[in-house]
Amino acid sequence: MTTTNERLSIPTAPRSAYTAPTVSVIIPTLNERDNIRRIADVVEKALTGVEFEIIFVDDDSTDGTREALFQLSHRDPRIRLIHRIGRRGLATAVIEGMLSSSAPFLAVIDADLQHDERILPTMLAYAQNDAADVVVGSRYITGGALGQWDKKRVWISAVATRLANLVIKAEISDPMSGFFVISRPAFESAVRNTTGQGYKILLDICASAGRPLRILEVPFEFRTRHAGESKLDALVAWEYLMLLGDKLVGHIVPIRFLSFTAIGGLGVAVHMAILSAFVAVGDTFFTAQIVATLCAMIFNFFVNNALTYRDRRLKGWSLVRGLTSFIAICSVGALANVGIANYLFSDRQYVWWAAGLAGILVGAVWNYATTSLVTWRSP
Question: Is 252 helix (H, G, I), strand (E, B) or coil?
Answer without folding.
Answer: coil
